[in-house]
Write a structure and sequence with these properties.
The chain is α+β, with helices and mostly antiparallel strands. The protein is built from seven helices and eleven strands. It starts with a strand and ends with a helix.
């Protein structure tokens, strides 16, 4: 079974539908096209790593996806803590992220943010990891989703059915804490420190999912990955 998400609804694909979709992709798209897309994504990853834009916390995980012949990633995040200036933390309009960090935050960092002017309300938002994995076919999508769910990414599914398929991995780990409203900051001193500690604890839970995902990916490496080592072992007489 596969979950397919779109703007209006979530759809469950049964096995027969998955097979039909797989047949459509396998006959209309070539490895040459796929490798071009994957090489472009790889070049972008290296560029982001060079300029310091890449979230290095998940570099090992991104490499695991790229090592899979039928997968690669774009626009992924290891989990983060942000401060959002908005009426509500889920707002899409009239909102601004004024602080962002992928590692634990300190009391002083959040206190500094609270000392600045803001327009609406300030929300301390903790978001779990998210991965956008492009896959060659439905079989690979199914395998990626199995790996994801083993690692605790329960809110995962296919985001689009156009080739290449896009699989989004999400954990459901999230927290939103109101720091300040129209009248000013709501937390200070020991209370603020306590809230920051809670935020860091939630982030740690999110990061734990990344460790589980890395382990699951390593355990499910495609057999093709091991062929060079197996050939060499045979040449050396190692069973």
């Amino acid at each position: 079974m596969l979950l397919v998400f779109n703007k209006n609804r979530t759809t469950m694909l049964d096995s027969s539908t998955s097979e039909r979709v797989l047949a459509m992709y396998s006959t209309s798209n070539s490895w040459e096209e796929w490798n071009k897309l994957k090489n472009n994504a790889w070049s972008r990853l290296l560029e982001d790593l060079h300029i310091g834009y890449l979230d290095e916390d998940i570099l090992d995980i991104l490499l695991e996806f790229f090592m899979r012949p039928k997968s690669f990633t774009k626009s992924s995040c290891s989990g983060r803590i942000t401060v959002i200036d908005a009426e509500y933390p889920w707002a899409k309009e009239d909102t601004m992220t004024i602080f962002k960090k992928h590692t634990p935050v300190t009391h002083d960092e959040i206190r500094d943010v609270l000392s600045r002017p803001y327009a609406y309300r300030l929300w301390l938002s903790i978001q779990g990891p998210i991965y956008h994995v492009y896959v060659y076919d439905v079989n690979e999508a199914e395998e990626v989703l199995r790996v994801a769910r083993e690692a605790g990414f329960k809110h995962s599914g296919i985001m689009r059915t156009e080739w290449p398929l896009l699989v989004e991995l999400r954990t459901g780990v999230r927290g939103d804490i109101l720091l300040a409203d129209e009248q000013g900051p709501l937390l200070e001193g020991e209370r603020l420190k306590h809230v920051v500690d809670i935020a860091n604890s939630i982030l740690n839970q999110a990061k734990n999912r990344n460790r589980r995902l890395l382990t699951a990916l390593r355990q499910r490496r495609p057999m093709d990955f091991w062929k060079p080592a197996l050939v060499k072992a045979k040449q050396l007489g190692i069973q």
